[in-house]
Amino acid sequence: MTTIKDTAEEWEVRATETPFVGNKTSVRTDDVVMPGGSVVRRDYQVHPGSVAVLALDDQGRVLVLKQYRHPVRHKLWEIPAGLLDIPGENPLHAAQRELYEEAHVKAEDWRVLTDVYTTPGGCSEAVRIFLARDLSEAEGERFEVEDEEADMELARVPLRDLVRGVLAGELHNNCLVVGVLALTAAQAGDGLEALRPAEAPWPARPFEV
């Protein structure tokens, strides 16, 4: 049986420059040597990476939030997510922080649901999506949010309703779409206990356990 698996590879870069540096990301321009020997220019966003959390409660509902996203001029239903702000940061710790900050929730059971490159043709962002279960209210005061997060709505929605919304073209956030469909596939396949452990290696963003 043929194994279908992505493989790491890096083509020669003859020249590189960074015409824009932002607060969290930057834009890089590389002159890349193609297989036939020609050199082409590729512009892309350099991204530190992200984590996302599909938090599933004991009633089969997923914790989602609605947030304004200016580039697409939409309020999108999403799952909790955030940047890997610290180089080499353990993605599980980052995911636990995001779940606390955005939803004031903690989870006792964590597994890797899937790893994705969000837009590999134009951005280096890699996202690890976790499945979090055995949820409870976090202790202490709520994290003080600001900017777009200050306007967020929180809800718990049955997984089947999210799948229907994805397939109907009503839900568009990348991590939500990938997360709910991956969870549905896992449930129908080998089961959630067969998912990778929360500390599974992540070659796209190596980290210290």
Automatic annotation (TrEMBL):
* Record keywords: Hydrolase
Q: Does the keyword Hydrolase feature in the UniProt annotation?
A: yes
UniProt entry tagged with the keyword Zinc: no
User: Domain of life, per the record?
Assistant: Bacteria
GO terms (BP aspect)? nucleoside phosphate metabolic process; ribose phosphate metabolic process
- Which segments of the protein form a coiled coil according to its record? none
Any Pfam family the entry gives? NUDIX
Domain annotation Nudix hydrolase: ranges:
45-184
One GO MF term: hydrolase activity
Q: Which PROSITE patterns match?
A: NUDIX (PS51462)
PANTHER family assigned to the protein according to its UniProt record, in alphabetical order = ADP-RIBOSE PYROPHOSPHATASE, UDP/ADP-SUGAR PYROPHOSPHATASE
Kindly provide the name given to this protein in its UniProt entry. Answer: NUDIX hydrolase
